[in-house]
Design goal:
The protein has 466 residues and is an alpha/beta fold. The chain is built from 20 helices and 5 strands. The protein has a 5-stranded parallel beta sheet with strand order 3-2-1-4-5, with helices on both faces. α6 packs across α11. The longest helix is centred in the middle third of the chain and has 23 residues.
Length: 466
């Protein structure tokens, strides 16, 4: 083909990009395009942190492309209408893009396929965001997996592809095309940013990867559970925006593991499992689409959840009276990020202490998280709530005090985000009510529920529908 449009979506990078690589290989000229679509980027469920990270990453992509002799063409509007017009404008024979896996984006791509084909243009989609797609890892009976451990074993038994090459520099530039202006800030589309988010873009992602593989990956198995320790990769926003390729991460992980001592190798394997969880939940979303609207196990749709607005507001704002829960929620509200161990703790607290429907927490997370991803968020919430794919779900109930004592034993994380407790000794900082005198002098709130009582109520609630 003479000219192909590469439509950037959640693949905002110039290296290890399958559709971009194919476009450069099969066409004489590649026109890079990004479409800011109101329905996807400024709707009521869009989070300001994710949107701000996206806008940062698009600007970083523009600079990276310019250094390689390409100009990113930006258009604002509806992709179904813009793409055929763009093909005519630039003389393209086809549009290449990497696959999206959310049901609503797949329905849109089906419509775009018909629109482009009827206008005489091709539309090709490529696997890029994952190693194995929805039905590429199946049981011996040809059915999708519903339990992670056998899925991960099957996943690991297959050969992982190598990263795609970086887009080559060009010297002969095409005609200059006028781009639309992206919003200067999230405020312009009705989503004021109230959080301080990490930097976006491909270079930021590659630097995080380099630092993580240089040392922290070897302690990941133990350190990943302690929110006061900088022991995780912090790559999840970049995987969500596509500012780094999954093949790149796995290649660097393989290199790091080859340098590891026998005692360090298990930590590398734990990190690999976390990456596989991401693909596990994507295939669950595809093969069991009812999880978008209800429980993976339909019998749990009959659970009688609480509808206490004061409790939900206290959880959202970090004033439940349980320090580790409140510190985690305040961190989320301020930064758009939350440590994975803390996600489990606060999700368990909402669903099994406050007995509030997991979907309310799921939606709040999507509004706040810079790495909010439909499949991973849904899977994580259903795992925590006990309605998901886990083999023994509902009777796993975290005690927020013992979780705090185990994973923030000195109260470092709690003191950082709950300054009202800064002077409390570490032996009671996770349960400040143990010293009524100190608690009475603090502005920190009392517990809104008693965990011991709520645990009994939760078990009874689940047993009714079992």
């Amino acid at each position: 083909m003479k000219t192909v449009i590469h439509w950037f979506r959640r693949d905002l990078r110039v290296s290890d990009n399958v559709a971009l690589s194919e476009a450069a290989r099969r066409a004489e000229r590649v026109v890079p395009v990004f479409i800011f679509e109101d329905a996807f980027h400024s709707g009521p469920d869009v989070g300001a942190a994710r949107l701000a990270f996206l806008l940062q990453s698009v600007e970083a992509l523009r600079k990276n492309l310019r250094e390689l002799g390409h100009e990113l063409l930006v258009r604002c509007g509806k992709s179904e209408a813009l793409l055929p017009a763009l093909c005519r404008e630039v003389g393209a024979q086809a549009v290449f893009a990497n696959k999206r896996y959310e049901p609503y984006t797949q329905r849109r791509d089906e419509r775009i396929t018909g629109t482009l084909l009827s206008a005489g243009f091709g539309f090709e989609l490529f696997k890029d965001a994952v190693i194995w797609e929805e039905v590429e890892v199946l049981t011996q009976q040809g059915k999708p997996y519903t339990v992670f451990t056998p899925y991960s074993k099957a996943w690991k038994s297959k050969t992982i592809p190598a990263p795609r090459p970086r887009l080559e520099r060009i010297t002969e530039k095409g005609p200059v095309l006028k781009s639309d202006a992206l919003p200067a800030s999230t405020d312009e589309v009705g989503h004021p940013l109230k959080q301080t988010i990490p930097p976006g873009g491909e270079r930021a992602a590659l630097e995080l990867l380099r630092k993580f593989m240089a040392g922290p990956v070897y302690e990941y198995g133990g350190n990943r559970n302690f929110p006061a320790i900088d022991g995780t990769s912090r790559l999840s926003p970049h995987l969500r925006a596509g500012t780094i390729g999954i093949r790149t991460i796995l290649t660097e992980l393989k290199k790091a593991r080859s340098r590891a001592t026998p005692s360090q190798q298990p930590s590398c394997d734990v990190f690999l499992n976390e990456l596989i969880w991401r693909e596990f939940y994507l295939q669950v979303l595809h093969n069991f689409p009812h999880v978008i609207k209800g429980a993976f196990r339909p019998e749990y749709d009959r659970l009688q959840w609480s509808d206490n607005p004061e409790h939900f507001a206290a959880w959202c704002e970090g004033r439940t009276g349980y320090p580790i829960v409140d510190a985690a929620m305040r961190c989320l509200n301020a930064t758009g990020t939350m440590h994975n161990r803390l996600r489990m703790i606060v999700a368990m607290f909402l669903t099994k202490d406050l007995l509030i429907h997991w979907q309310r927490g799921e939606r709040y997370f999507m509004k706040q998280l810079v790495d909010g991803d439909m499949a991973a968020n849904n899977g994580g919430w259903q795992w925590s709530a006990g309605t998901g794919t886990d083999a023994a779900p509902y009777f796993r109930i975290f005690n927020p005090v013992s979780q705090g004592e185990k994973f923030d034993p000195e109260g470092i994380f709690v003191r950082r985000w709950v300054p009202e407790l800064a002077d409390f000794p570490e032996d009671i900082i996770q349960q400040p009510w143990e010293n009524p005198f100190l608690l009475g002098r603090s502005i920190y709130p009392s517990r809104i529920v008693l965990h011991e009582e709520q645990r009994v109520k939760c078990l009874a609630m689940f047993k009714v529908v079992k």
